[in-house]
Each structure stands twice: as structure tokens, then as C-alpha cells.
Amino acid sequence: MTIIQLFLHELEQEARTTRKMLSCVPDDKYDWRPHPKSMNIRSLATHIAELPTWVPMILTTDELDFASNPYQPLEINNTPELLAHFEKSLADGKTQLVDENEQHLNKPWTLRNGDTIYSVSPKMDVIRMTFSQIIHHRAQLGVYLRLLDVPIPGSYGPSADDPSFS
């Protein structure tokens, strides 16, 4: 199995859990946040939904410069929109996970804001970090949902609310 094939498999596995978690976001809580310093659910869930699009960006560019490419999230207002955005992002994310891109995985990729360089890492490491970000923010969303008394689906096994783990 190539690294690209491994990434595709992992993205598909994480998508099942991500889809379950995003589907739990209540339509009437998109502006809710657990703390003034926290993102609201809209921002957090939208970020989770769009993270798969980082894969083709990483594989087709050499950097992301926030100074010349400011972040402009899509305005999501309900769970059907959120899930549709995730499915589109997931499909986009898979487009560059093809065998021909295996040769690019060790090339450097830079994350910057103008002259400030946050990181320079092999593309393969940045893709792994992207998957870790999906998992991290999905867990963060789970805390938000728990605080709202929304039942949490199982991720890698049963949860207190989903003992059957489907």
C-alpha cells in the first residue's frame, strides 16, 4: 500500500465519524459558544467540514500565505448545509489522493502569514497534521455538544450515548 492509498483509506475512515458528529449539530445552536474565547458552533463545525480541502491544496501548491489568501469561511446556517459542505469538501479532498502524487509527498510545504513563517514541513507531514486537525476539532465539537446535552455518537468504539456503536 502506498502512502497516498493509506491517506485515502484514513480520510474515508475519519469521514464516517466526522459525518456522524456533524449530523448532531442542532440547527438552533449555530451561534452558541461555551466560553467568550471559544469559537461558536458554526465556525467550529464549518472548519471541520472544510478541512478535507486542505489535502488538494497541500498537494497542488507549495505554501499557504494567509497575508495573500485570507480565510473566508462559507456561512453555514443549518445541519443539512453543513453536511452538504462536508460531502463536497470530502470529494474535493480525495481528488488529489492519486498514485501520481506519491512523488510529491516529501517536497516542502510552507504555512506563513507574509514574512512570518509558521512551519515548513514535507507535504506528507502536513497532510497528517490536517487529519489530526479534523480529529482534534471533532473532539472539541463533541465537548460543545455534550455541554448542550446532545447525545454523542461513538467515534472509535461505543460512547456513553451510543453503546451499540453503529
Structural notes for this entry:
The chain has helices at residues 3-22, 41-50, 54-60, 79-94, 123-147; strands spanning 63-65, 108-113, 116-122. It is mainly alpha-helical. A 3-stranded mixed sheet has the order 1-2-3. A hairpin with a 2-residue loop joins β2 (108-113) and β3 (116-122). α2 (41-50) packs parallel to α4, α2 (41-50) packs antiparallel against α5 and α3 packs antiparallel against α5 (123-147).
Q: What would a concise description of this structure say?
A:
The chain has helices at about 5-20, 40-50, 55-60, 80-95, 125-145, and strands at about 65, 110-115, 115-120. Helices cover about 45% and strands about 10% of the residues.
Percent helix? 40-55%
Strand element count: 3
Neighbour order of strands in the largest sheet = 1-2-3
The average pLDDT value, as a whole number, equals: 96
**Beta-strand residue fraction:** 5-15%
Class by alpha and beta content = mainly alpha
Q: Tell me the overall shape.
A: globular
Order of helices and strands: HHHEHEEH
* Unreliable residue runs: none
Q: End-to-end distance, in Å?
A: 27 Å
Number of helical runs? Answer: 5
Profile the largest sheet. 3 strands, mixed
Give me the Rg, rounded.
17 Å
